[in-house]
Specification:
Helices cover 39% and strands 18% of the residues. It has 397 residues and is of the alpha/beta class. The strands form 3 sheets. It has an 8-stranded parallel beta sheet. A 4-stranded antiparallel beta sheet has the order 3-12-13-14, with no helix packed on it. The protein has a two-stranded antiparallel sheet with strand order 1-2. Helix 9 links the parallel strand 8 and strand 9 (249-252). Bound molecules: zinc ion.
């Protein structure tokens, strides 16, 4: 988990020194004891616990109104998806509920979800908009993301998911919607300081390559980096498009060609794997992990927490699924929620590994070895969290 060293970069009998909100030093515990005594620095003991970087959930849709449990139950009781969709289900139902929700209710429900992630050692969460699909509600979602960071001891990255679905009122004005998203709406949200990156859902059932490209071009002109929902249900060449625009990440990637993987590798774009959605949708073709490895594509793992296709609030279960469903090694999976997740957010210099100079975000674990973080299903061995050099109170752990 630190630069260099053994598998996982692990160090045993080690100590870590914090100064302000930064990691100041990492080295042998024996040396630390001497230095601390000489400089009168207080010591916290973590006997027998493992320390990892604070976990990073780099792809979530954490802010939304309502939920889709009714739909979940209807489907299992035999109602056809088409009938549910005709009755206003699917993404549009979350859009309706999110538009109707006040700022306070959005904030309160998102904070509950954020705390669940935080209880498993998460110190940074990416949060997407995309259930507003009009300027006022997209703004409210992104403001909610910013408010979470002020309220809770956690770092939030806010992503404007402008192209998520075509809202009903634009059914016959598709082009106008796409040009609003990349034009005046992007400008307004950017001016308000609410956008750290953009995202688009490039898929047959969502937005075309051309529409996605027009948004990426607008974002690039504004100096923003992008994420792209790519290859979840079909291979449209979205990974190549993401690579061409130097996107931070291409996410999902169940449908990805060797050429797509090579493009991501050459561009340094991170592949964000989302096994929770794969599981919920009962997909059968996993992302081509061997191709990603061969092309040297950094792989991240995230919850994709959202009310429809991945109602999961557990990064540890996502790590387990990345191993059991996608065949990642536990080391790759852990790297996917630390080092590579930081890279997927453009924060590789700031977080993701335990190195002097980086923010002092780390989690303590009551496990015998790191692979246990991927092995457990439904257990939470997190024994404490330090965020920005400060121990988190256990009530908000
Ligand atoms: Zn998503």
């Amino acid at each position: 988990m630190v630069a260099g060293g053994d598998a996982y970069g692990k160090l045993e009998n080690a100590a870590l020194a914090v100064a302000g909100d930064r990691i100041a030093w990492i080295g042998p515990a024996a040396e630390a004891r001497g230095r601390a005594a000489a400089q009168d620095i207080p010591i916290e003991r973590g006997d027998g616990l493992w320390i990892t970087p604070g976990l990073i959930d780099c792809h979530t849709h954490l802010v939304y109104g309502g939920n889709r449990v009714e739909e979940f139950e209807q489907r299992l009781c035999g109602v056809a998806y088409e009938d549910i969709a005709r009755a206003g289900g699917g993404i549009q139902s979350t859009v309706n509920a999110t538009r109707a929700a006040g700022a306070e209710s959005l904030r309160a429900s998102a904070a509950i979800r954020a705390r669940r992630l935080m209880s498993e050692g998460v110190t940074t969460i990416e949060v997407k908009s995309g259930y507003g699909l009009d300027l006022a509600t997209e703004r409210r979602m992104l403001e909610t993301a910013r408010a979470l960071e002020r309220e809770l001891p956690v770092s939030i990255r806010a992503t404007y998911l402008g192209l998520h679905a075509l809202p009903a009122e634009f059914r016959d004005r598709r082009r106008e919607f796409v040009s609003n998203v990349g034009g005046p709406w992007l400008e307004a949200l950017l001016d308000a300081g609410l956008v750290d990156a953009v995202d688009a859902f490039c898929e047959d059932i969502a937005f075309s390559l051309d529409e996605t490209e027009s948004f990426l071009r607008a974002a690039q002109a504004s100096g923003l980096r992008a994420h792209v929902h790519a290859g979840q249900l079909s291979d449209m060449g979205a990974a190549e498009l993401a690579a061409r625009y130097g996107a931070l990440s291409a996410d999902h990637l169940e449908y990805l060609s060797a050429r797509g993987a090579q493009a991501l590798g050459s561009a340094g774009t991170v592949a964000v794997l989302l096994p929770g959605a794969y599981f919920t949708l009962r997909q059968t073709l996993p992302p081509p992990v061997p191709l990603l490895r061969a092309a040297g594509v950094p792989m991240a793992v995230s919850t994709d927490a959202n009310p429809g296709t991945s109602p999961g609030m557990s990064i540890l279960i996502a790590l387990n699924m990345a191993c059991t469903l996608f065949g990642l090694t536990p080391e790759e999976a852990l790297c996917g929620a630390t080092r590579n997740a930081a890279r997927a957010l453009g924060l590789a210099d700031e977080i993701g590994t335990l190195e002097p100079g980086k923010r002092a975000d780390f989690a303590l674990w009551r496990v015998e070895r790191p692979a246990e973080l991927c092995y457990n299903l439904g257990a939470n061995p997190c024994a404490g969290v330090v965020y920005g050099g400060e121990p988190r109170p256990s009530s908000s752990a």
